């Protein structure tokens, strides 16, 4: 009666080396993603970007009230495109009540959007109004959705449309630099405090270590 042959030491060694190598590759990829610097989105007005919905003639102004301007925001993005051949020229004003929070000309990007930088706001504004005036000699089209709940006002006339608005923080930041602020947000979202984030991360690392240990033990059996 033949006895089953045991795996060679070289094969057993590779059996536990492969998962460790995969873990190292995954950690390196995860670290490269965290180290990448990108603009940080502080908030949106939750209006889906569907299609051009409003056309603004020369010197017409569009205003969209009821916008939440998040704290730390320093740039607003609105999606629009020129109807003619010339580049759009716009003036964007952000205000709340009688206070003008920011005002500036839009920086047009060929992807069909404009960015307007401004001084970072220190606190969240719950009822801001974003206005855009067309300074060009040709019409421009703004994107968003048509909806009966829209409250866009063009030269005093309310339209059943909503324009997509994005808010960004100043400059670019890596995910590493945001871990300190992400932890308490995730923790409080789970009703447990900021420590929940770090405990969850530690448990994830422990589970990976246990899985590797089990794999090594079985390969040596």
Short description:
This protein has 2 domains: 9-37 and 174-220, no CATH class; 40-171, Jelly Rolls (Sandwich). Helices cover 31% and strands 41% of the residues. The chain has 3 helices and 14 strands.
Account of the protein in words:
It is a single chain. This protein is α+β, with helices and mostly antiparallel strands and 221 residues long. It has 2 domains: 9-37 and 174-220, no CATH class; 40-171, Jelly Rolls (Sandwich). It is 31% helix and 41% strand. The protein is built from 3 helices and 14 strands. Strands 1, 2, 4, 7, 8, 10, 13 and 14 form an 8-stranded antiparallel β-sheet that branches. A 6-stranded antiparallel β-sheet has the order 6-5-9-3-11-12, with no helix packed on it. Strand 11 (152-154) and strand 12 form a beta hairpin. Helix 1 runs antiparallel to helix 3 (195-220) and helix 2 crosses helix 3 (195-220). The longest helix has 27 residues, at 9-35. The chain is elongated and about 75 Å long. The chain starts with 8 loop residues before the first helix and ends with a helix. The model is unreliable at 183-194 (pLDDT under 50).
């Amino acid at each position: 009666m033949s006895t089953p042959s045991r795996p060679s030491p070289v094969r057993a060694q590779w059996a536990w080396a492969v998962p460790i190598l995969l873990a190292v590759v995954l950690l390196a990829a995860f670290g490269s993603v965290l180290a990448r610097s990108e603009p940080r989105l502080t908030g949106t007005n939750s209006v889906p970007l569907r299609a051009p919905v409003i056309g603004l003639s020369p010197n017409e102004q569009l205003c969209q009230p009821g916008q939440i301007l998040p704290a730390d925001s320093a740039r607003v993005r609105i999606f629009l495109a020129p109807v003619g051949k010339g580049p759009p020229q716009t003036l964007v004003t952000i205000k709340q009540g009688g206070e003008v929070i920011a005002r500036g000309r839009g920086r047009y990007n060929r992807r069909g959007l404009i960015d307007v930088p401004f001084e970072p706001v220190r606190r969240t504004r719950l009822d801001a109004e974003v206005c855009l005036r067309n300074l060009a000699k040709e019409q421009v089209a703004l994107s968003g959705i048509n909806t009966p709940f829209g409250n866009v006002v063009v030269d005093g006339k309310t339209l059943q449309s909503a324009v997509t608005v994005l808010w960004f923080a100043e400059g670019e930041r890596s995910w590493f630099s945001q871990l300190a602020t992400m932890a308490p947000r995730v923790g409080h979202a789970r009703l447990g405090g900021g420590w929940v984030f770090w405990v969850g991360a530690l448990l994830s690392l422990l589970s990976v270590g246990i899985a590797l240990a089990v794999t090594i033990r079985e390969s040596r059996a």
